[in-house]
Amino acid sequence: MGRGRVQLKRIENKISRQVTFSKRRTGLLKKAHEISVLCDAEVALIVFSTKGKLFEFSSDSSMERILERYERYSYAERQIVATDSESQGNWTLEFPKLLARTEVLQRNIRNFLGEDLDPLSLRELQNLEQQLDTGLKRVRTKKNQLMHESITELQKKEKALQDQNNLLAKELKQNEKTVLVEHAHREQPSIGQNSSTFMLSPQQSPVPLTLALPSLTIGGTTFGATAIVDEDAGSQTQPSTTTLMPPWMLRHMNG
C-alpha cells in the first residue's frame, strides 16, 4: 500500500523541525532557480528561520531592483483599491439623495396629472397652476408653428398643381387648334370639286331646264313665252306663254 497524504501541521519536535526546514529550504531555493531559468521570470525569495536567520534568492543580480518593482505595483494596487472603496462610499452616500429626488419627481408628475393634490398648500397649487399654464402656452405655440408650416407646404403644392393644370390646358387648346386646321385642309379640295361638278353638270339634276323666249310688245301689250327642255327625254316641250297670244303668232314663232 502506498503512503497516505501527510497532514500539514507544525512539527512539535524541535530537532525534526530543524531538519525538515533545512531540507525544504534547499528544495524551495532549487525550485525558485528552476522557474526563473525555465520561464525567464524574475523571482525573489526571502525566508526567515525560526531563529530569525535570513535566506534569500533573486533571479536578478540585485534584490533591491525586484523589491522596488514590487513596491510600485503594490502602491498602484493599493491606490486602485482605495479609489474603488472611495467610489463605493460615494455611491453609498449618493444613493439616498438620488432616491429622494426620484420620489420628488414622481410626486410632481402625479401633481401635473391632477393627482395627490390634497397635501399641497394654496401657494403650491398656485405654482403648479402657473407651471401648467406656461407648459400649455409652449405646447400651443409649437402646435401653431407646425400648423403654419403644414399650411404653407400645402399652398406650395396647390400652386404647383395649378401651374401644371394651366400648362396642360394650354397644351390641350393648342392640340385642338392643330386638329381643326388639319381637318380644314383635308376637307377644302373635296368641297371645291363637288361645287364645280354641280355647277358644270346640270344634266345630272332631275329638274328640267326652263328657257326664256324673246318677248314681243304689240300695242302696249308684252307677249312672252318660256320653253321647258327635258334633258332625259332629249326633246323640247311646247312653250308656255305668260300672256294669251293669237294662234297665228304662235305658229309664226314655231315656224
Spatial shape: elongated
* CATH hierarchy: architecture of the largest domain: 3-Layer(aba) Sandwich
Mean pLDDT comes to 76
Which fold name corresponds to the CATH topology of the largest domain?
SRF-like
Tell me the helix content.
55-70%
> In sequence order, what are the helices and strands, one letter per element?
HEEHHEEEEEEH
Helix-strand category? alpha+beta
> So, the CATH homologous superfamily of the largest domain?
Transcription factor, MADS-box
Biggest sheet record: 4 strands, antiparallel
Feature tags:
single chain; 255 residues; alpha+beta; SRF-like; 3 domains; 4-stranded antiparallel β-sheet; two-stranded antiparallel sheet; 4 helices; 64% helix; elongated; MADS-box/MEF2_TF
Could you explain the architecture of this structure?
Pfam families: K-box, SRF-TF. It is found in: Nucleus. Its main location: nucleus. This is Transcription factor CAULIFLOWER A-like. GO terms for molecular function: DNA-binding transcription factor activity; protein dimerization activity; RNA polymerase II transcription regulatory region sequence-specific DNA binding. This protein is α+β, with helices and mostly antiparallel strands. It folds into three domains: 86 residues, Transcription factor, MADS-box (SRF-like, 3-Layer(aba) Sandwich); 81 residues; 48 residues, no CATH class. The protein is built from four helices and eight strands; from the N terminus they run H-E-E-H-H-E-E-E-E-E-E-H. The strands form three sheets. Strands 3, 6, 7 and 8 form a four-stranded antiparallel sheet that branches. Strand 1 and strand 2 form a beta hairpin. The radius of gyration is 68 Å and the shape is elongated. 0% of the residues are buried. About 16% of the residues have low confidence.
